[in-house]
Amino acid sequence: MSAQATGPARGRKLITGVIGADTHIVGSRILSMALEEAGFEIVALGAITPAEDFVKAAIETAADGIMVSSLYGQGELDCRGFRDLFIEAGLEDMLIYVGGNLVVGKQDWTDVERRFLEMGFDRAFPPNTRADQVIEVLNADFAVRSAGRRIAE
Amino acid sequence: MRGGGDMALLIDFGSTYTKLRAVDLDAGALAAAGQGPSTVTTDVTIGLEAAMADLDRHMGGLPDFQYRLASSSAAGGLRMVTVGLVKELTAEAARRAALGAGARLVGSFSYRLTEGDTVAIVDLAPDVLLLSGGTDGGNSEVILYNAARLAESPLACPVIAAGNRNAADDIHAIFGQAGKPILIAGNVMPAFQELDIDPARAAIRQVFIDRIVHAKGIDRAAEMFDAVLMPTPAAVMAGAKLLSEGTQDRPGLGPLAVVDIGGATTDVHSIAGGDPTGEGVVQYGLPEPYEKRTVEGDLGMRHNARCIVETQGADRIAAAAGVTAGAVEDWLLRIEGDVEILPERPEDVAIDAAMARAAVRIAMRRHAGSVRIAHTAAGPVTVQEGKDLTAVAALVGTGGALVHAAAPAGVLAAALGDRSDRTSLRPMNPALFVDEHYLLYAAGLLAEVAPAAAFALAMNGIRAAGGKDERRGTG
């Protein structure tokens, strides 16, 4: 049995999409399907999504979290200032994850992760992350968020 | 009087004229036309009686009309303000709903209404306000905030709420407690990137029939007609839809576009899906309505003549008309002195035609979608925004400036796409038609009660415009 949304995570609305000029839709689509099956509500923006569109969608739909995919190695450029857009829109507490092939070439993951966390992402996931892992982390984060903290330890 | 068959009377209470069309229902053809002044601002009956007398003269006696239906764009038209949340999302969906309902959009607002916004809305004094915001189950905070601001403001007009359905009950209560008219309609954007404007359009039309017709004083002449069914632009759109789709027995023209050049605005309607025709093209942005109307408030042949010239460039207008820039300025000054002026001197006729071509070209460029190349790691991808109208089967021109033009086909052809500019998705090779006797609105009204006769009327009313050489006008 695959992982399910539990407790405060159940029924949360998540926005998925592939950021920037990136056409690699498959990963984001698989993630969307898995999350939906797990009991999340999904608003899928699809491929080639400008950063601002995540913000606009989040405002209209009153989303609880954002799942940014980037597969083509330009993630670092596309994601710069992503958190700031949400701060500008008054959504400074939005839970934001990023995952995929975030950088070009072989780079040390802990270093890549640190850079994305510094950019304001709450979580960064390396290539080959399984949807189940993401669901477990979402469960943990929504659990502590309902207690007023930002993300789980 | 003519013929023994059943007749219908179609009335357009316009801003300048009260126009009548008597239609032979059996033949599906225009029997006679009549015209009087527009007197809605004083007493609508006076203009209508004058128009009826004119029609009487043309017909040699008035028959008993089986239907007497009217549309109205008088007294400023159906003036609407729209309010939404995100500018490109629910605020845009609300705009499209209002335009699709035939409204004259006088203001559009997004996000939380500021004090200044509320004051501006009260000053605009719209006939109807359309309030949207949030997908169903999405953001309700902002639409509730805006509802409260509007309810406590001196704004008195009916409000239609077409936003997040979870907020509908509270919105109803907010306006109810303030003792203000409120109507709840389906959400213009029920889910993200899903457009559903028909319920809001229907609600706008209902408010128009129930309240606006009375508020504008048109019902003073109520004994002289059966009903005022819709704003005139909505009737034109209904006529366009009928031409496109046909009836049960007769096929229509297929996907088409209509350009309506007026004294104050240029309207473009498209009845077409507008999906990408090219292979591998990615559509971006809010889905497009199948029946789409855009209004260019800066492209009117009389009230905004200078604006057309400035947008296009005075030098280009002069060159296209084969006159000097001074002659263009001279004509503009005379238009500004008398907005009902008609060109007589050859150079004025040429300038007017060049202005009409510019208005048509710009209006269609704004209405039609566009494509751009996005460079991705996987290579270039063509991204389309808006409707692809390259393959529409027909392009119909209506409105005085076009119908009365010396070479209407040349004016209409200015709307066509240009092979040197592949980014604009304007019609490429449609059949061109001119609505010579201004019958589209009449067909749109008549379609409500007698669709077969209405379709025949519309088809009989449009004239194929020009051969190949006439099609590409200069300028």
Provide key terms for this protein.
heterodimer, A: 153 residues, alpha/beta, Rossmann fold, 6 helices, B: Nucleotidyltransferase, domain 5, 6-stranded mixed β-sheet, 5-stranded mixed β-sheet, disordered C terminus
Task: Summarize it.
The complex is a heterodimer of chains A (153) and B (475). With 153 residues, chain A is an alpha/beta fold. Helices cover 39% and strands 16% of the residues of chain A.
Question: What report would you give on this structure?
Answer:
- The complex is a heterodimer of chains A (153) and B (475).
- Chain A has 153 residues and is of the alpha/beta class.
- Chain A has one domain (7-143): Rossmann fold (3-Layer(aba) Sandwich).
- Chain A has six helices and five strands; from the N terminus they run βαβαβααβαβα.
- The mean pLDDT of chain A is 93.
- The termini of chain B are far apart.
- Chain B has three domains: 7-75 and 216-225, Nucleotidyltransferase, domain 5 (2-Layer Sandwich); 79-212, Rossmann fold (3-Layer(aba) Sandwich), CATH 3.40.50; 237-471.
- Chain B is globular, with a radius of gyration of 23 Å.
- Chain B has helices at residues 44-59, 90-100, 115-124, 141-152, 168-177, 198-215, 232-245, 305-312, 314-321, 325-337, 346-367, 400-403, 408-413, 440-446, 451-461, 468-471; strands at 7-13, 17-24, 29-37, 67-72, 79-83, 104-109, 128-131, 159-161, 182-184, 227-231, 256-261, 266-271, 282-284, 291-296, 370-376, 379-385, 394-398, 431-435, 462-464.
- Mean pLDDT of chain B is 93; it is low at 467-475.
- Chain B is α/β, with parallel strands linked by helices.
- Chains A and B meet through α2 of A and β15 of B.
